[in-house]
Give the backbone structure.
Amino acid sequence: MRYVQYGNSGLQVSKLCWGAMNFYQNVDEQTAIASVHKALDQGINFFDTADGYGRGRGEEVLGKALHGRRDGVVLATKCWVPMYDWPGGRGCSRFHMMRAVEDSLRRLGTDYIDLYQLHHPDADTPVEETLSTLDTLVRQGKIRYIGVANHYAWQVAHYLGVSALHNWEPMISLQVCYSLLDRVIENETVHFCRRFNIALMTYGPLRGGILSGKYKRGQAPPEGSRASRIQDMRDTLTDDMFDILDEISAMADRYGIGMNQLAVKWVLSKDYITTPIIGGSRPEHFDPMYELFDFEIEADDLTRLDDLTERYRFKPFGNQAVVEGGGLSPNRW
């Protein structure tokens, strides 16, 4: 395993981050715990989850898996999604976050969270309230670093400016979607993160399984797959898409690797990506990723993948629909 500096911090994280979004839903608890232990044995020290994954279940299972092995682990979770059945039981308000942190700590079985992330922007809460609350939680020792997920670059720039104005703890990371089939962040987000040394962690390197090779031209999506459940994903499986997938698959065959490995290896080849998040619903989805540092892809082939998927730089920003950011409060502070 390789390790990298995590943005404007002293953190050293594994070049692969283990994502716990839906794993616990498809296997029994002991299998999930064994998979986490295997990741630790492979040198992964960075684990990402969220309170909204299974309404807390994802945190509970990960907490059990890390019991007795917490030292040296960089543990990341998130807040924002509705977690409580009362008004204000969601979002990034002080009212919600102070409760959400305590509950995440309990479910994870730890007394601190290394990286606490805003899962989405909250247009109903002034950013000053959100950022001052996060700063308080850092000073209390309940969280160590703060980041965001599914934000535009300008929203993070706003956070950095407000934090600097009040000498509050700054954001150090941004988590967004990125793959061969979703390259929109290259237009602005990548340049922003480079300029301000924001760690860029990315999810969805297989584009919901499309880059795993599970979908075949002229065949119905496998039962239980995302495309079998989501019409929008099925709509992307056009002949043009399969032409691209055929070439990616042929390239992977030349190297004797899986298409899924090639897709993640392409993400790893980008020096602006701090760490991609690997995920899956079964252990066999994770296991091939542990071989990624055992082989290299020739520069010409990486360039060909760039050229082949250039069109996917120019599509709607799919990380979130909110474009106005947090509520304005120019006279509050």
Remarks:
- The first helix runs from residue 23 to 26.
- The domain at 11-313 is CATH 3.20.20.100 (TIM Barrel).
